[in-house]
Amino acid sequence: MKERKSSLTLSSRRGSSTDTTLTCWKALFLSSLLLLVGFLVRLNYQLAQELSMDQGTAAAVAVSGVAPSANDIEDEGAQKRLASLRKKVSTMKEKVGVMKGMVEDIKRQNAGMGSEFQPLTCTPETARKQAARMNKRFQEWWSHSACPDQVWMENVTNVFRREQGVVGGKGDGLKPFLILDIGCNKGYTSADFFDALSPGTNMNPKQLLNAIRAVARDMKTKFDRDGGVCNDANKPLNKDRKTERNVEVHCFEPSPATYNMLKAARSKLMNQEHKAKWHIHNVGLHEKNGQMSWHSACASSVGDELCTIVPDDTEGAVQVPVVTVDKFLENRYQEMPLVHMLKIDAEGLDPAVLTGSTRLLTQNRAAMVMFEFNPGLSEKDPPHGMWGKRGNPRKKLLEVTGWLDELGYDCYLDTHLVEKRESDKGVPVAPALYRITGDCITEEPRVRGWANVVCAARKFEDAALVLRKLATMV
Predict the structure, then answer these.
(1) The pTM is what?
(2) How far apart are CA 170 and CA 338, in angstroms?
(3) What are the tens digits of pLDDT across the range 64-83?
């Protein structure tokens, strides 16, 4: 591989020999199809001649493929010849149909191969510079990785609309935008996507906060951090306040208390007349299906981050059903749907949820993936989650992103941009994203608080390009 001046190396998973082979096969199938169609015309012409038609009529029959029926022929020998020829024509038509299907398969494969974004690999020097800027950023801002700005969300509607047309599933362009919000908590990620994709629904972070507080008043209580840990309710809203689109957001919340609050908030926000739908499920997502024990906080505290899986013998544990992403989609839809965003915030169990999404990810039916990396959870007492030194079982971020890379996904650490008051003090600019995939981060990153990782399938070039452009250091 050659080194570019920009310190990047591009490597193609499919070389020119693959493209040449594909072109040859496509040409062969098209030629065969033309020969079969020509043979059908010849059979029809022969049929017409056998029935003693004049040349002009025979030619018309050959082109139109319409000939008299056996009932119109009085001669018994001609009837037998007609039946024999029609059988040949029927057989040839079946072969033509099979050939057409094979050509369409070749076209789909060709479209998929041509559209997949080329992988990118960082040189050691580029990786070193990016790591130095990322670590320096922690001295400038206590935790630029927590509560990131999610700049990539700014144009997500246009990106998702273009991805609807990417080859990969029949009728994707007619189906709703599909968001899986796993670890829904108070619902602010759901609200973000409703505001981005269907702002006319009037379901957005600000309206959600109003609904949550109205529910709290009904219950004569107050929910802790009701505006979200990252002050989510104060995010700027979409300037478009009228457009409504078909959107389905599935919100998965294992805490019975939080689940009931979300349902009550939804009843104050949305009605059945809206195109956009918010489905709320009292279920946990994992790498297996069944029942699991959850912390007692799940039963009574709304939005409590202690609500996580615990050993079965834990006192006061709550039994909540768990399901894999693949199983949920299999039960809900007739075929694997196109998931525009698979968002996971599973209190350290994110790797397990990703494992339960293997079929979805292997088929590249998730255009984008977002999950939380929080190694600090395993340092708590009691420890929980899979990240960090005490993870059970321990999973490393680079191990997970390496697996996603093999499946065709580019992953990045999301971040908090340099603010104006910082730049006024001389703080240099920093990228919106730090690239992980392609040896761009080579050591397990040290974060404060937590970090969000956002990934895009290279098959969905527009989404992959949006993220790559925001990782300005590579």
Answers:
(1) 0.75
(2) 10
(3) 444 455 455 556 666 676 66
